[in-house]
Design a protein that fits this description.
single chain; mainly alpha; globular
Length: about 400
Amino acid sequence: MKDTTRSLIFTSLGHFTNDGNFLLFPTLIAYYKLIPGVSLPLLGTMAIIYNIISGFLGSPIGKIADRINHDGLLIFAGIFIEASSVMLFGLSFVFIKYIDYTILTASVMLGVGQAFYHPIGASILAFTYGKEKSPLAMGYNGSFGSLGRSLIPIMLVYSIDFFGHVNGIFIIGVYTFASGFIILGGLSFFNRNRYNLKAMNSNKNIKSQKNIKFRDYSKFLYILALIVFVRSMFLVGTVTFVPDYLDNVLHSTILMGYVTSISFLSAVIGQPYFGSMVRKHGGKFTIAITSIISTVFFGIFLLVRSFDLLTLIYMIYVFAAFSGFPVLLGYVAQVIPTEFSTQSNALIWSFGNIVGGSAGIALVTLLLYVHVTLYDSMVYMLIFAVLSVVLLPLLPSKTSGQEKQGAAA
């Protein structure tokens, strides 16, 4: 089996597993809020905690990955920690007296585990596929992440309904453990040095290639990180509470699970579609398209009430909004040399996307705390979506980014 195929298969399994757990806690909010003494603002605070931990750990983990050359082992470590956190979420329904502390501990572990996959998985694909082909490969890879986000919430809901809170959540935890060990074996072939050697041998000016510094790309990365930060405040700040919002509108956890799961299936198609768009038209153009579509359709989503319309509109929203892996990291792969890939990915994904998302969750939680309704809070979050669109002209195009790379080389 080719290295490219193996890297795509096993990083895709990692993406499926990792992103399936992305909506684990938001789905559990609909169950936790029914327990006496557990408040929605408190649950929002827990969501902030695991997102902040994930966001700030991403950069140091990225630097470690760029130095130690054990990417498969690091992805396994993240998945293993996530699986342990899932089991602890299940135990929180046993130790009701200590539920706040149990959820807190599980949230911290989930945040640590979620810090690993995205920057490392994107780097593996950038190494094996190269700059031109990696955005499309990330699109196919990202579609499995979207599939995980789609299937895990409804699987969790049905598991809880059929087997109870504890056993239902444990089933997800056991699957996560198994996935981690499969990924560890599947990525054992990957060694960065093989691909670095190929890149150096294909570059005629090896001496000047060695003089490239990370700071040569810092302006581009910081501008992109700022835009992603603002965009993610809107995206993650709202998506964390969408299951609860849908439960309030539809008055059914089952229907809530259907809307969430069906809607996230659209991103299975959206990720490779927008990954291909990055390859053809560049990251700046694709970020603009996805940002505008997601802003408009989330506004429409807040205006409808029927199950059918909610599902349709949210599907279109998710199709564009949750394409960040191939769009953002594919853009980075086109501009940044592979030797800085993981720390660059971590800056954009972990700080921009995840810490920005944490700020969004914090803002929604604060609004709920001061008794602003969940609906009105989501309306206010649209301001950040509009702001992220307004900031887009600051981004360099694909061409200018590549010219800068050539100048640095």
